[in-house]
Amino acid sequence: MMYGFLADAVVVFHLLFVLFVILGGLLVLRWRRAVWFHLPAVFWGIFVEFSGWICPLTPLENWLRYQGGRAAYDTGFVAHYILPVLYPAGLTRQIQFVLGSLILLLNLGVYGWIWYRFRRGKKEEQSSLE
Length: 130
Known about the structure:
Elements: H1 2-30, H2 35-51, H3 57-67, H4 77-86, H5 93-129
């Protein structure tokens, strides 16, 4: 019972982490200090997608499920939980590369916007001092 609960908690945490990787740049727009958490998470997410590695949370979840007497799954978190919703076919290296590229492009866009706002604010400060 406890192992099943812990496995489910890992799934929830994993999903929240994936959402943070994808959308965390929007938090940085509001709370600039979130960048210190978000950028490492983005780099990790992109690395996992581009390299084809499996996030360590997936084997942890599988181990907890196995300990609790439930079946583990042999694919990664994204392939098991997210891709069935987005893509009915299943995870391929090509899809992983596309997902990693989308994460990269989305975050480059958000951080580009943040940089633009930062630079614009600096210029406005300088012009008000003159």
